[in-house]
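Data availability (excerpt). The following record was deposited with the supplementary files.
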Amino acid sequence: MSFTLCAGTAIGPYTGGDCPEAVENAARILRRDLEKRFGPAERPVNAIALENAVFDRPEAFTVEAARGEMAVRAGDALGFVYGLLYISEHFLGIPPFWFWMDMDIGRMPPVSVPDGTYTGEKPAVRYRGWFINDEVLLKKWAVRGDFAEPWRMAFEALLRCGGNMVIPGTDKDGRLYRDLASSFGLWLSHHHAEALGAEFFLREYPDLEPNYDDHPTLFQKQWEDAVKAQKDKRVVWCLGFRGQGDAPFWAYDTTGKYGTDEARGAMISRMIRLQRRIVEKYVSHPVFCTNLYGEVMELYARGLVELDPDVIRIRADNGFGKMVTRRRGNHDPRVSALPDTPEAHGGIYYHVSFYDLQAANHMTMFPNSVDFLSAELDKVMEKGLSEYWMINCSNIRPHVYMLDAVRKKWFGQALDGDTHSRAFAAVYFGGSEAVAACYRAYSAAQLPFGPEPDQHAGEQFYCEIPRMIVHQFFIDRLSPAPGLRWLTEAGTLSEQARFFGDLCRTQAPKLLNLWERCEKSGAADITLHARLQALGAQAGALLGDGFEKLEKQDMLAAFMAFGDAAECFREAAEALKGWEKGVFRGFTFNDCFADYKHTAYMLEKLMGCVRELGDSPAHDRWYRLAYMDRRDRPIRVLLVEDNHPTDRELYLRFKKRKEQENG
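Predicted structure:
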C-alpha cells in the first residue's frame, strides 16, 4: 500500500499536548507546499499524524507510511520540524534553497508514498547554524511589502538544510529578529562583538567612556538585561569581551591599564567568568561558547585567556576559508586557528561571505573552490571541532552554492567540486552540465592576490582598492596609501596603482572568458557574479593605465582611462539592477558595501581633478578638442559655443569622437 499526498492531506493532530510554535510553523510551511504542488486545500481525505516518541538523540524523527496512513514521530520540536520538511523535500520535490534560487514550484499530480519508514541523516555537528551578518541587502528589501518575510525565508532555508542555530542578524537586527528565529525552533547565539547579545555600551550610554573599570555596574546591568530577555529561549550563550564594535576592547581604553597582552588576557578571562555567573543566575544547564577570533586567538594561543572546560571554543577562519587568524589592516600573522590536538568542546566560525574592506566577497560567491573548502573542513573535523559550526552567510542569495556545500559537511558527507556542481545543477538547473561546469570554473578564474591557496579576490578587491587609491590621491598623491601595504610595499601611490592594475590586467581575460561561458549557460546568478568580477578586473587595469598616463603628464589620456574605469562600475551597478526580477526586485538596492555606483562616483571625482590639472583655467581647451572641428579650434572669436560640459559629458563626447574616428 501507499499514502497519497494531495490537496486533501491534512497535518495533525499533535499528540503531545500543546503543539510547540516551531511545529506549528513547520506545519504551516508544509501546508503551503502542498498547496503549491496540488492547489488550494480541499476537504481532508487523509492526514499526517504528529506523534511523540522516544529517540536516542535530540532532533531525530521518522516518517512512517503504512496501510494508507502517515505519521511523523519525534521526541522534540525540531525533530517534528525536520520530519515535516523531509516530506516537503523528498516527496514534494521542494529543495532547501527553492526560494533563494527563485525556483518555480509548479503543480504536480498526487504523490503516492510507498509504505516504509523514512528518516533523515544523523548530523556530524551538534550546533549547526548561520550568522546572517553584514545583511545590508536584507535590511531594505521587502517581499510583497513585508520586511520580515526575507527573515522567515532565511530561517526556513536554514532548517531545510538541517541547521538548528542562528545569529539572526547583526547588532540591532540580532535583537529585532531573535523572537522570530526562536519561534522557528532555532537555537540563538550571538555575534562575537556582542557578548550575551547585549546592547553596545556606547549606544545606551553615549556620553560615557566605554571602560568597564569606570562603569562596572552599567556593564553588568546590560548583560543581565540581555540574559533576562532570552532566558526562556534556547541559547548558546556567547561569552567574551571586545570593544564597541568589531575591535579589541583596548582600542577604546583610556585608563592605560591594558598595554600588555598579559593584562588584556586577564581582563577577558575575568569578564567571561562574570558573564557566566550572570547566565547561571537565570538559566538551568546553560550552554556556553566563546569566540577565539582575531586578537583573542593570539592571546589564547599564548595561554593568556582562561576558560572553563565546558565552554565551546570557537575558532575562526580568516574570511577566505583558511583556518588561520584573519588579516587586520596590514597585519597578517596567519597563526593557525586549529588546536594542536583534538579538542572535546570545539567549534568554528566560518565564512562563505566576508567583509574586510580589502579583498573579500560579499556580493559575489566565495572565491575559493569547493575542494578547498571541503579539505579545510575535513581538517576541522579531524581536530574534533564538531560541537558548533556557525557559518557567515551574509545575505544568503549570493552564497547559496557554498551554503549548499557546507550543509553536506554538517552531516559528514564526502564532498568534491565535480559531484557538488553536478548535484547542484541537477536540483536547480535541470541537470545542465554547462551550468555545473561554470560553477566549477568560477574559483579557477579568480584573481590570486598572494601566494597562499586561499588568497583569491572577491569583489571588494576591485571596489575598495580603487576607492582607497582615489582617497589617497586627494590627501597626498605622492605618498603610498598606508592601508595598501598588505598588498604591495610600493613606495609611491602611482606604483601601488600600477601594481594593482597589472594584477587586474593579468586576470581580466580569464574572468571575461568565464563571464562569456556563464552567459551561454543561461544561469543568471553565476553569470552576474562572473560579470561583476570581470568588470572589476577591467576597471582595475584601466585605473593602473590612468596612473601610468599621469606619470607621463598625459592628462587627457589619464582622464579617459579613469572615465573608462568609472563606466565599468556603472555597468556593474546596472547589471545588479538588471538581474532583479519577481520577489527579488529591490534585493540589491542597498549595495552599500561593494557599492559599485559609489566607486564610479569616486573615479569621476578623480576625473574632475585630472581635468583641472590638464585643462585651461577657462575650461575651454578640452572643450574645443571634444566639441569643435579641427579647423575651428584655432579660431577664438568665441571662447566656447555651448554650456560647459560636466566631466562625464566631456568624457562621453571624447569617447564618441574616438569611436567615429575609428570608423
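Summary of structural features: The longest helix spans residues 493-521.
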